[in-house]
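Aim 2 progress update. The chain analyzed this quarter is reproduced below.
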Amino acid sequence: MRGGPRGTQFWPWAGSLLFLALGCAAGADLKEAQQRLLSGDYAGCLALARQAPQSSLDAGDWQLLRCQALLATGQYAEARAAITNALAHDRRNIRLCWQAREAWLNNGQTNAAAQMLEDIVRMVSWQPRNYGDAASLVVFGQAVLLKGADPRRVLNTLFASVKQAEPKLREVYLASGTLGLEKHDFALAAREFEQGLKQLPDDADLHCGLARAYAPSDPALMLASLESALQRNSNHVASLLLLADRCIDAEDYAEAERFLARVVAVNPWQPEAWAYRAALAYLRNQPAAAEAARKNALKFWPANPRVEYLIGLKLSQNYRFAEGAAHQRQARQFDPDYLPAKGQLAQDLLRLGEETEGWKLAEEVQRQDGYDVEAYNLATLHETLAKFTTLTNRDFLVRMSRHEADIYGAQVLDLLGQARSQLCAKYGLEPKSPTIVEVFPEQKDFAVRTFGMPGNPGYLGVCFGHVVTANSPAAHLGHPVNWQAMLWHEFCHVVTLQLTRNRMPRWLSEGISVYEEGQANPAWGQRMNPRYREMVLGGDLSPVSKLSAAFLAPRSALHLQFAYYQSALVVEFMVERFGLEQLKAILRDLGNGAELNQALAQHTAPMAKLEADFAAFARRRAQQLAPGLDWTKPEWAEGTPAARLFELLGQGQAKPPAAPPPGLTNAPRDWLSQTNFYALTEQAARLVREKEFQAAKAPLQKLLELYPGQTGPNSPGAMLAEVERALGETNAERQVLSRLAEDDDQALPAYLRLMELGAAAQDWKAVQLNARRYLAVDPLVAPPYRFLAQASERRGDIQTAIQAYGTWLELDPLDPAEVHFRMAALLHRVGDPAARLHLLKALEEAPRHRAALQLLLEMDGAPPQTQTDPTGEGVGLGCKRNS
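Predicted structure tokens:
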């Protein structure tokens, strides 16, 4: 855990407590009752507990079991009576005291619970030798943690010693793992629960704890752990609640309700189950049902802060931040010291753009709990953001690192302005306040601002409604991303979320944003490709009613991207079939509180028909992809021994087989049919690897003829350009690259090569175009600015040239004197007095720069010397200097 030591120390005598008395007096009936409790047979456990003699040596253990079973089944008043009677016979048993605290809390007796906590600490402090057994030490550790003790010391000294002395004591692993969860230290929590499961592999509580630790980072492991917990206890309430939580996030509300019904069957008054039901009702825009569920959640503890916290948390996790914040404020009214509510309120306010109060609360949480990882991360992020540059106009407040703001901050504002102008007019929205956009060069900072914790590397940007967070191009090293398309996508979320008051399913929100990317620029967004074709025709389409769930736990990165593509395809289908006005009407209805299915039925078709018609539409779209190609997939295409053979053939590490592998009709170099996509692709790739460039042209040209729109670094266009460059066929190479650049919004090598070819041919318009394409992906490198400046100067676009030269200077050019000179010449041409400063900087770098000296004389009014420039490239550009 992060953070420094803090809190009061409660055991200067801790060494004496580490001597553990490990006697065990439980009999066979007690062990059976304990097993029934752990397996979810609460009625059986209660039956045995009622039969147990009250005067036995293990009477305290029986009373604990009885109280736990009563609490598990919602018999809160009975649990309070049982534990009160038990304390009357054994007031010094701190395990009973700890259980009494829980019983009193569940009955709303917060003062009595607080007093019990004080009593536990006082009893152990006065008579530490009487509480040296392992179970009592764990209770004491939990108590002092609530009183503000140093978590690291409790964990590493007290709990660690208990585990060493009694490694099969389940309570110590539960306490340690829960501590990690509470501090958002999920790695610590997972480690503690895994350690416990090595000793107690059949403990459902430990399996559920491990699931909670995995939940933020690994949904598959979380589900596996929950399955293990429910195999051991089918009535395990915490596991059922976590499954319901997941279903709510997947917008599978019917399945969530089924899990909650199972919880209520075990405990009719389980407060978290009713809190989830309240959240479900709010998400369905059913306020009366929500209030009834909330009332049930607070029936026995009317001021339970966790109920309001949980309702608000689920609303915020579903982008209803304003409503979520209201519930956190109510939780804080119930208990001003309830830190989870304060921390979540801070996050909600920051996502709403209410930054002053949000950061103030975040700092308070960090001061109060120096070990909360999420609070620590936010405090650190606040320091980072304080160093950012803020760019503003009437409509936007953009925060970027100072370096990046100087380089392409103006481009960001310009792009956002274009998006606002087009999308707000199209959808009929006038944003009520400026949109906040924060661009992070470090992915971890983006993740902390967006999710509260580092991680989630698959996200490029996130919109909360009034606030957008995004990764900058610096965070995408090795995998280029078109930042302009990304920001356009996110601002579309600003429009649709504000139109619907954040009341829209994820698939519709993402689908409209991806769809609008393609409307703005045909090279942006997503389109049908061979993998998507295979997935559509192979049965990987999600039903529209369950499409949001495809974003929650995709089987792979490809499946996540496919979820975005399918969502956009649904939107495209609705616009083509029913018209844009009907889509806008759906958004308006959602904003007014209508359920999605109701809005869809009114403006498009009932969900069942919509799903069937869309599926047919998607299949047709897949079948229309390059219909002249044979899409039969040979056995060697992937994952087979034959595939490995052809890989080795291509590398010259194997001899051709006597007979072709399955799927081939001729010898290996003849391949399948003349139009098979996989055969042509494999043949072309092999020939390029073998540098048989002339032979590679035939399959590549065939692929381009039949499938001209394929993109990517290994697309036929990219490979054919490589072949033609190797063969010296420059004009053909340029034509192929130009087609590729029109279709691919991330083709950096193509853009760079086209700039080089355009400059050589003095096609300055093409140079400008491809420089701008390059900058839309990576604005942090010098070459595109150099080409843009040169092309703009040749075309007489002086202001663009000045801006490009100025940005090039920010990137430490190899020849700063020349760049300063070009800037000076252009500024002088338009009468800008800054010309002299740049000229002096050029001469500072190169005192004998002849053209700069000539320009200085001209600025000072001296008659110009005769100087010719037969190349037309401008005096001084690339000139030879006197040494």
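Residues 402-427 form the longest helix (26 residues). Residues 1-26, 639-660, 662-672, 866-883 have pLDDT under 50 and may be disordered. These observations will guide the mutagenesis experiments scheduled for the next reporting period.
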